[in-house]
Amino acid sequence: MNRWIVVGIAALAAAATVAAEWQRHPGAILAAGLGLLALTTGLAARRRWLVRRDTAARALVFGAASSALLALAAAADTWELHQLAVNWPSRREAAIAAASGHLEGELRWAAARSDALAESALPLLDSSAQAAFAGLARLLDGDGPTMAVALFDGAGRRHAWAGPHRAAIGPDGPALEAFTTGFYVWLVARRQTSAGVAVATLLLYRRAAVPQIGTALADRFAAATGVGLRLLASGEAPPGPDVFDYLSPSGDTLFAVVTVPPEQAAARNERLSAARVRSLLLA
After folding, report:
1. 204: pLDDT confidence band, cut at 50, 70 and 90?
2. Spatial distance between the Cα atoms of 39 and 20, rounded to a whole number of angstroms
3. pLDDT band at residue 68 using 50, 70 and 90 as cut-offs
4. Residues 179-198 pLDDT 10s
5. What is the pLDDT of residue 199?
6. Which of 17, 114, 242, 283 is most buried, most CB within 10 Å of its CB?
7. How many CA atoms lie within 13 A of 8 on its CB side?
8. Burial of residue 206, with CB atoms counted within 10 A of its CB: 0-12 exposed, 13-18 middle, 19 or more buried
């Protein structure tokens, strides 16, 4: 067997061992060791390729590429874990700032989505109850936060509805409002014609003690950004840099939003778990 094949196989075996150790105790020395072993494997693959371009040479090239990716991933993850340990205050503020910008877009989308649902439901007021029920169900098809819609006739009686209705939200009220209960915060949009009123609701937030049925906008936001949300009635939130009011188009305060960044240990554990998965896939 060509000596470069032996060198390459030995370097790959050593890289697997070092990667396993890095998963248990991630650190700069082990990440540097992975980099040196990747260079060794690359050198062995190049030398073998120059001598003979056979199956062994191709295997070494593939192994060298995998080893290089593993070393780069370990270096990036080691740096990120170090930054989370020594620069947590700045990382926390950066996470809040990035999440706040994302949150504004999410709330605008929620208002537009609720308004569009109410607008789309209005024509069904002229349909029979059976046809209206079927039509409303079709309007709720799709992914995203949990939504519901109801139609009320001119006398304020329910004509048809679809989706979960966990709060008694009626036809009377502003075009856009937040409806807060002890467990939920709903965004409510209303549209009216001479035939009646369409009321669309979108689940913004639910308290932690509430069973997780459906999806709140806050749940989706936390999964996308790593930053949690608490939504409170206007005036209930304590003052602070992580708190802001959400205003309706007319300028009324609908609710207060409190951003809840992850704890340092939780952020580190999340990053470490993702790093371990990457290491296992590349090792």
Report:
1. very high
2. 19
3. confident
4. 888 788 899 999 999 899 99
5. 96
6. 114
7. 27
8. buried
**Residue type at position 281:** L
122: DSSP letter: G
Q: Do the bridges between strand 253-260 and strand 243-247 make them parallel or antiparallel, or are there none, so unpaired?
A: antiparallel
Edge-to-edge strand ranges of the sheet holding 184-193: 158-162, 147-153, 196-206, 184-193, 176-180
Q: Give the residues across from 199 on adjacent strands.
A: 150, 190
Quick check: 241 and 257 in contact, CB under 8 A? no
Residues in CB range of 180: below 8 A, 6 or more apart: 186, 231, 232, 233, 255
Using alpha carbons, select from 128, 174, 167 the residue that is nearest to residue 151: 128
CA nearest to 163, candidates 141, 151, 148 = 148
Identify residue 262 by its one-letter amino acid code: P
Lateral strand order in the sheet of 243-247 = 228-232, 253-260, 243-247
